[in-house]
Amino acid sequence: MTSQQISPGRVDTAGEESEVAGDALTLGRRIRARRTRLGMTLEQLAAAVDRAPSQLSAIENGRREPRLPLLRSLAQALGSTVDELLLDEAPDERAALEIAVERAQRGAVFRTLGIPPIRVSKATSDDTLRTVLGLHREVERLHGERAATPEEARRANTELRAQMRVAGNYFADLEREAVALLESVGYAGGPVSQQVISSIAERLGFSLHYVSDLPHSTRSVIDRRNGRVYLGSGLPSRDARAPILRALASLVCGHEEPRSYGDFLRQRVEANYLAGAVLLPEASAVDLLSEAKRQRQISMEDLRDAFAVSYEMAAHRFTNLATERLGLQVHFMKAHESGTLIKAYENDGVRFPSDALGNLEGSTVCRNWTARTVFGQPDRFNPWYQYTDMASGGTYWCTSRVEKAKEGLYSVSVGVRFEDVRWFRGRETHHRTRSNCPDERCCRRASDDLAGKWQGAAWPEAATPTSLLAALPTGTFPGVDAHEVYEFLEAHELGR
Description:
Number of strands: 11
Strand content: 5-15%
Number of domains: 3
Radius of gyration: 30 Å
Organism: Leucobacter ruminantium
Largest sheet: 6 strands, mixed
Keywords: DNA-binding
Domain HTH cro/C1-type: 31-85
CATH architecture of the largest domain: 2-Layer Sandwich
GO molecular function, one term: DNA-binding transcription factor activity
CATH class of the largest domain: Alpha Beta
Family: Belongs to the short-chain fatty acyl-CoA assimilation regulator (ScfR) family.
């Protein structure tokens, strides 16, 4: 038995037993089965090992586990061996059923129900035990789905963001993994090509397959059994690099099926981080950014162009390296053209809009922030720079660009406090606004003149996104149709 299976607790006055969990149930049932097979009563066995019957009853019921001296005495009295008593298998089918029910009733999920456990005895029928076990498994399934409720998702997201802030959004272990991957295929510098990524996949034992029938709820699918990575055939080769790396990250990082929404979010962050760390290798990216800082010309566009990645990836990668390697505290945000905040990170004190629980995603960005004013600029080729004076304190400078996705336009912004703007290109801009949010008079409340004229006369139909009213996706991988994925893998395995 391992230390994970045994939870040492209070030692009784005899000093021979400790309260335990886990396989103590199997051990207890094996002792009882052996005693019953020999026709011994509990009192007879207790006398043989010089213990009180109540102590042996606790051991047989799995509430206590005997220390080694007592276990040896029990084995001798039962004509058995210690190794035989410690086998992992239940002595028979009935005992296995009893053990499963007892474990279920002692688990955290059952305890949260606040109902008393049933007493498992000889009189309890097998059908009753199977029913209790079936009900518990269904409760566990529903409990797992509850982890994907909006409330739980927001809590998990807030906790993860706090961890990222403490770490400066820099994760040394993932940086080392990225270096090892590149070194394994002989990467010699410059933009990381599609061929380099294909070589990494091959090195990990996987081949790449571009298909036209990729499940609609997925970006990629890994077939671990046959060593394949499936991607949509519509991806241009350059854009395929990040999806491939995100898929391979599950292998490199040792991800297992997420047990909670928090696990799912953490794994997604790690996959995105590893993809960025491979496509913008730390050493090269830091060299470029350090020289740009020396010249006071840090630019997301230069970082993007040097490594042939998207602006969003370059901006996000900058946040990974800015604090740890450049000594700069920064913030990053991605906002939809509707004003909805999609992604956000900060360790520079900027106060993003949030709900009462501190969750940022889904909140509305102030119309006067760079992430919103950029949508009003006719020049979409050049970056938009702006200073914003915050009512909450301080002045922040941001650079922002508009990009297009299937969901519409969105802006990607990187910003710093006023005292750090001297390191960035675009600091000389004259564009300046003031934000008084969350005061509604800042940008969300119409003027008295307009309100007086139109209130009561306007009747708009809200373009409510269906996702607003839908439940958060559930399942092991939230939002993924497992049935569709399994059918896809089966079809491609049979058709190979």
